[in-house]
Amino acid sequence: MPAYYWMVWPAVIAFAAFHTVPVLVGIFFSFTNYAGYGEWNFVGVSNYVNLFRDDRVLAAYGFSFLFAIVATILTNVFSLAIALGLNAKIKARNFWRGVYFVPYILAILVIGYVFQFFFSNSLPKILSGIPLFRDNILPNETWAWTAIVALAVWQACAFAIIIYLSGLQTIPAEMYEAASLDGASAWQQFRSITFPLIGAFFTINVVISLKGFLQVFDPIVALTNGGPGTATESVTLLIFKGGFTGGEFAYQAANAVVFFIVITIVALFQFRVLQRREADF
Questions:
Q1: What is the mean pLDDT of the chain?
Q2: Concatenated DSSP letters for 67-103?
């Protein structure tokens, strides 16, 4: 057997043991009434049927999609704007690139507790003159989700900036020089040169961002733990709570299978639409 097989097989076995097998076990139990302990019986597709009748599950999906869409838009807008600035000829450019990447390497739960203190203590004092921020917004059912968006976008921008910087550095400087000689404004250069040529990088960022934000978990745990009530409860948090502490192992396993299918469909749809836009350019 060639030597490279001996290097590949350990990784394949580890992947199967810690990923594929648990997935298959979860799918198996999704057709049962297993509570996570004790005896169980097969119940067919009743878990899947009940998911679509469960208001709490539907609310979690609604929150997850609202959060993911808003956070994806903000992340890509801010990241692209910052990347354009970091790609310009500025002093200490490499230093600032490193500074903007720091949030990505920090533990999100630790930073989440820092943000929790900020929103509950510091912000009400700093913005005491604004009625919305006069009190802690985390217990506010209407606005608590915005704090989670702020934390998630703050960290996600770090990785997205690197992707956009990689794309911007592939554009020849001669194209901008020629456009300037033709009298093109900065906005015209961005619209006609920059954005079309980083289309593939934009696609990558949007797909990764939306997929990641749909699975949001850590920022919610750190800031609100799904509260107040279930106002900020995402699908992943619901699966965790119900599956591991709520005696709904099989039911939430079915929810996880449905969620996996939903994320896959969304990602494939994104690739199809965004790659078609790249071709149009």
A1: 90
A2: HHHHHHHHHHHHHHHHHHHHHSS-TTHHHHHHHHHHH
